[in-house]
Design a protein that fits this description.
With 492 residues, this protein is an alpha/beta fold. The protein has three domains: 241 residues, Rossmann fold (3-Layer(aba) Sandwich), CATH 3.40.50.300; 129 residues, Helicase, Ruva Protein, domain 3 (Orthogonal Bundle), CATH 1.10.8; 107 residues. 43% of the residues lie in helices and 13% in strands. It has 23 helices and 16 strands. Strands 4-7-10-1-11 form a five-stranded parallel sheet. A three-stranded antiparallel sheet has the order 14-16-15, with helices on both faces. α14 crosses α15. The longest helix is centred in the middle third of the chain and has 21 residues. It is elongated, with a radius of gyration of 30 Å. The termini are far apart. The C terminus is likely disordered.
Length: 492
């Protein structure tokens, strides 16, 4: 748009402005910004080769479309990012309930203003953020909410007949005319309400209460849905699916690097006393929790495991670090493996368990998932431990003295609330543990080395080479056989 913004219809015409549909506007801006090498969907990670090209194709095709995917796959963020393809400002007849374009008035108000004032009709400029609206589909949504209804109070106040088009109270969809309207969780919309969208999608018009008028709309309609909702909670009626031009599938991050980038972007981890130092292998563990949950037989995979899981996990871990420092009066924020237990509430509230998982209990499933994540990252950084039938058969010689240390019925105690010196001293009792951590994790500080030492013990525990028992916030690493015999004697 020109920098000089006309304020009247006459000046608008003289400036040489033309009418352009919203879909043409999106298409034009996408082409211009792609040629300029600009990022079209900032903040969206992992969709560069999959989802984003499909959205670009839909925009180039001037399609209304639906994003279909499980929870936590950035569907809402994607459709909100479409506003970046709108012009900074768009002209509208001032006061028009439908934001009518000055050269294409469609409602009775706009037509009346032009008839009364001609080229002196006032024009306003609508910012792009005001040209986007969305509605969460719920069973109580009505046709009046979305499309509109007659307003007898307005008729009485303005002394208009109920047959007058200007007594209509427009719903949220027509009020988003000349913009983008989104409906989230479309299957939750009752079928009879979905029918009301058919004309808007196919003929780009709406009718209210049988009025003998057809009001043309100029807008882009986008939808989101969860595949689970298609069959369990609701459905999208076949005629409506047929009128949605493109169906685009979203997905979870396919790589740890993408998952880490999303968590780094979204998680709140900077605190009053500084930003925590979280080593790379620890961040891998946090991301692997979500990946392990998506592979767990105890979790309902049709419901999905949101990308919000690692975000909440790392925030809880940092808060546990912060809580420890408040008590110990220390300043360095660095995690411990034991801090992961503070993240259990962030996992249990975000996964749906199958019957077997319910029997085990949410907490046990969360512990199991974290164990799988730790084992996977451990195998990525340390020599492979040979197994036979799922049981450890032979450990690499580098772990020999560490495992032998526990065979003498000694133990190592770790808590998530002890001062760092006490934590480090407890781990230092294990021969070669520090050397192994430094060698394979390339630790950058004594504090990171201590964390690496605990990681080695936890990794060996996940391989069933040493045992671990928990009493409150105290975690005790011991010999596997001795622990088994102790449990047998206790049972007897």
């Amino acid at each position: 748009m020109n920098k000089q913004r006309p304020t009247t219809l006459g000046a608008f015409k003289e400036a040489g402005f033309i009418y352009e549909t919203v879909k043409d506007e999106l298409r034009r801006n996408l082409i211009e910004r792609t040629r300029a090498g600009q990022t079209l969907f900032p903040g969206i990670v992992g969709y560069e080769q999959t989802v984003i090209p499909s959205i670009e194709n839909a925009v180039l095709s001037k399609h209304n479309f639906i994003l279909l995917g499980l929870r936590g796959q950035a569907k809402t963020r994607l459709i909100r990012a479409l506003t970046n393809l709108l012009d900074d400002e768009s002209p509208a007849i001032k006061g028009s309930p439908l934001n009518c374009h000055p050269l294409r008035p469609s409602c009775a108000y706009s037509l009346r203003m032009i008839a009364d004032h001609g080229d002196d009709t006032e024009i306003e400029w609508v910012a792009r953020e005001k040209r986007y609206q969305e509605k969460l589909a719920t069973p109580d949504v009505t046709i009046a909410d979305l499309i509109g209804d007659l307003d007898p109070i307005k008729a009485a106040r303005e002394k208009r007949d109920l047959s007058d088009e200007e007594v209509i109270h427009y719903g949220i969809i027509p009020r988003t005319n000349r913009g983008i309207f989104a409906i989230n969780e479309l299957p939750d919309l009752q079928p009879r309400i979905q029918v009301g969208l058919l004309n808007i999608l196919e003929e780009n018009d709406l009718q209210i209460r049988g009025f003998p008028i057809r009001i043309p709309l100029d807008m882009v309609l986008v939808f989101t849905a969860n595949p689970e909702d298609y069959t369990n909670r609701g459905n999208i009626i076949t005629p409506l699916k047929d009128r949605i031009d493109s169906q685009i599938m979203t997905h979870y991050p396919t790589s740890i690097a993408d998952a880490q980038a999303i968590t780094e972007q979204e998680a709140w981890i900077g605190r009053d006393n500084g930003r925590p130092e979280i080593p790379g292998f620890y961040r891998e563990i946090i991301e692997e929790i979500a990946f392990a949950a998506r592979e767990s037989e105890f979790i309902d995979q049709s419901s999905g495991v949101s990308a919000r899981v690692p975000i909440s996990v790392i925030e809880n871990v940092v808060s546990n670090m912060e809580r420890r420092n408040l008590r110990t009066k220390e300043t360095l924020l660095i995690p411990r493996i034991a801090d992961l237990n503070a993240a259990i509430p962030a996992i249990t509230g975000k996964v749906e368990l199958v019957y077997e998982g319910e029997r085990e209990g949410p907490r046990m499933i969360a512990v199991n998932i974290m164990g799988r994540a730790i084992a996977k990252v451990f195998a990525r950084h340390f020599p492979v431990i040979e197994k036979d039938g799922g049981l450890p058969m032979k450990a690499d010689p580098i772990f020999g003295k560490i495992i032998a240390h526990f065979s003498s019925e000694t133990s190592v105690d770790v808590t998530d609330d002890s001062p760092h010196a006490e934590y480090e001293t407890s781990l230092a009792k294990v021969p070669t543990l520090k050397k192994v951590a430094e060698q394979f994790l390339k630790t950058a500080s004594p504090e990171e080395t201590a964390l690496g030492m605990e990681f080695v013990l936890e990794g060996l525990h996940q391989q069933n080479l040493i045992a671990k028992t928990a009493v409150g916030s105290l975690y005790k690493y011991t010999d596997t056989l001795a622990t088994m015999l102790h449990n047998v004697r206790r049972d007897d």
